[in-house]
Automatic annotation (TrEMBL):
InterPro entries: AAA+_ATPase, AAA_N_dom, At3g28540-like_C, ATPase_AAA_core, ATPase_AAA_CS, Mitochondrial_chaperone_BCS1, P-loop_NTPase. This is AAA-ATPase ASD, mitochondrial-like. The gene is LOC111299600. It comes from Durio zibethinus (Durian). PANTHER family: BCS1 AAA-TYPE ATPASE. It catalyses: ATP + H2O = ADP + phosphate + H(+). It holds the Pfam family AAA.
């Protein structure tokens, strides 16, 4: 048959079918029609061995965007970019990366534990009822999953769980992360774009490895925490002198795990109720940070006494009362803070890290930092040789130098924070000669060493002097006692 005849033939078949369908719709009663449709579907499903699941973009009465749909969209992004012919592109992470997803009416195949299945994207278009010169169309997108019915258990169970988990993880990796700060009981945020990583962090390699392993183990331990019946959270206490990298480490932690940061300013929190409200509003996959915890809260309970005393003073002088009311004082207590760490709501819906930093660990109440609350205590200290090598590599791209041995000797004797060392390694000119920087560091280390020597000498002198004074005082007392005894006899 000629192609032209064939097309004509097909056309007449289609026309006859449409005619039959029109007659069927018009003359058959509604109940009879639905009866036929029902049984024809059963017949098709009996003959057709595949199962289809549809995931609509919007669900519920309020038509919220379905979490499953967006997880599937993310999950399919890599498969789609390899298989689909028509793709949609979206920009994420502050215009820095591109995410591809398949366009409407595309199909891609996937495989799970040897089972093959297919994902198709589609959309329903419905015209809105309201009259308008520019009719608005309502597009409802969906994904349709097709698989053989003998694989029902594996697909409905483990496969879909895997898709949702992977999809959510991709979403977390692609999202723009945020740095939240509280102004009173309200969080406000900016985009978090700190470049610190564990690679650029100058600490001893073993310590670095241990912390990174601890963090990644925690982030993957959802099942473990639920099995042992503990909230999925972990407390870190970072302590050490100023400029040793406590804040930098928090940024590196957030970058490693892809978490948001909630920088909690305790002094701006009015009371325990406000603290609880702030915490409930934090999201999963976040680090809640309280910097300089010793300065944020009077952990010895003296605050209450101080406030009472202040109130009495206010009564005496009403002018002072005005200024005190203007400047609100936080009433967050140690027990409030412990509730914050242990409370049921501290781990609502997902993982959280709680990080405290302090320059004076000895000032903290042991109850606050006991294991189980602050699970890991990390000391960040003065710059050692290994930490220096990381800084030299970061700042000057140096792997080694003949001045290194001198620097190693000096670092063992002089105390200098990584922040100070970094300052010397910072290129001062565009050409940035590394040798000049290293020499400047050596000079600074020599001065620091000399200062430390003089200080130690002075301390020893003072000690000796106070020792001598003590001996003289004791001698005077002994002489006096002897005199007294003699006078009695
Ligand atoms: N261990 C480190 N590794 C890399 N850079 C560091 C390190 N320590 C300090 N720095 C550098 O010094 C600067 C100050 O460090 P950072 O603010 O992290 O110190 P800190 O211990 O939090 O200080 P503070 O107690 O005063 O808040 C940072 O900008 C960082 O570049």
């Amino acid at each position: 048959m000629f192609p032209r005849d064939m097309i004509a033939h097909l056309g007449s078949i289609a026309a006859s079918l449409m005619f039959i369908w029109a007659v069927f719709q018009q003359y058959f009663p509604y109940q009879f029609r639905s009866y036929i449709e029902k049984y024809s579907q059963r017949l098709v499903s009996f003959v057709y061995p595949y199962i289809q699941i549809t995931f609509n973009e919007f669900t519920g009465e309020r038509l919220m965007r379905s979490e499953a749909y967006s997880a599937i969209e993310n999950y399919l992004s890599s498969t789609s970019s390899l298989q689909a012919k028509r793709l949609k592109a979206d920009i994420v992470k502050n215009n820095q990366s591109l995410v591809l997803s398949m366009d409407d009416h595309e199909e891609v195949a996937d495989e799970f534990r040897g089972v093959k299945l297919w994902w198709a994207s589609g959309k329903h278009i419905a015209k809105t009822q309201s009259f308008s010169l520019y009719p608005v169309t309502d597009e409802k997108r969906f994904y349709k999953l097709t698989f053989h019915k003998r694989h029902r258990d594996i697909i409905v169970g483990p496969y879909l769980k895997h898709v949702l988990k992977e999809g959510r993880a991709i979403k977390v990796r692609n999202r723009q992360r945020k740095l939240y700060t509280n102004n009173g009981s309200m969080w406000s945020h900016v985009v978090f774009e700190h470049p610190a990583t564990f690679q650029t962090l100058a600490i001893e390699p073993d310590k670095k490895k241990e912390i990174m392993e601890d963090l990644t183990t925690f982030s993957k331990a959802e099942e473990f925490y639920s099995r042992i019946g503990r909230a999925w959270k972990r407390g870190y206490l970072l302590y050490g002198p100023p400029g040793t990298g406590k804040s930098t480490m928090i940024a590196a932690m957030a970058n490693l795990l892809g978490y948001d940061i909630y920088d909690l300013e305790l002094t701006a929190v009015k009371d325990n109720t406000e603290l609880r409200k702030l915490l409930i509003e934090t999201s999963s996959k976040s680090i809640i940070v309280i910097e300089d915890i010793d300065c944020s809260l009077d952990l010895t309970g003296q605050r209450k006494k101080k406030n009472e005393k202040e109130e009495q003073e206010d009564m005496k002088d009403p002018r002072q009362k005005l200024t005190k009311e203007d400047h609100k004082i936080s009433q967050v207590t140690l027990s409030g803070l412990l509730n914050f760490i242990d409370g049921l709501w501290s781990a609502c819906g997902g993982e959280r890290l709680i990080v405290f930093t302090t320059n004076f660990v000895e000032k903290l109440d042991p109850a606050l930092i006991r294991k189980g609350r602050m699970d890991k205590h990390i000391e960040l200290s003065y710059c050692g040789f290994e930490a220096f090598k990381v800084l030299a590599k970061n700042y000057q791209k140096l792997e080694s130098h003949n001045l290194y041995s001198r620097i190693q000797e000096l670092l063992a004797e002089a105390r200098m924070t990584p922040a100070e060392v970094a300052e010397h390694l910072m290129p001062k000119t565009a050409s940035g000669d590394p040798e000049t920087c290293l020499e400047s560091l050596i000079q600074a280390l020599e001065s620091a060493k000399e200062e430390a020597r003089l200080k130690a000498e002075k301390e020893a002198e003072d000690k000796e002097l106070s020792g001598q004074e003590e001996t003289t005082e004791i001698q005077v007392l002994v002489d006096k006692n002897v005199r007294d005894e003699n006078s009695v006899h």
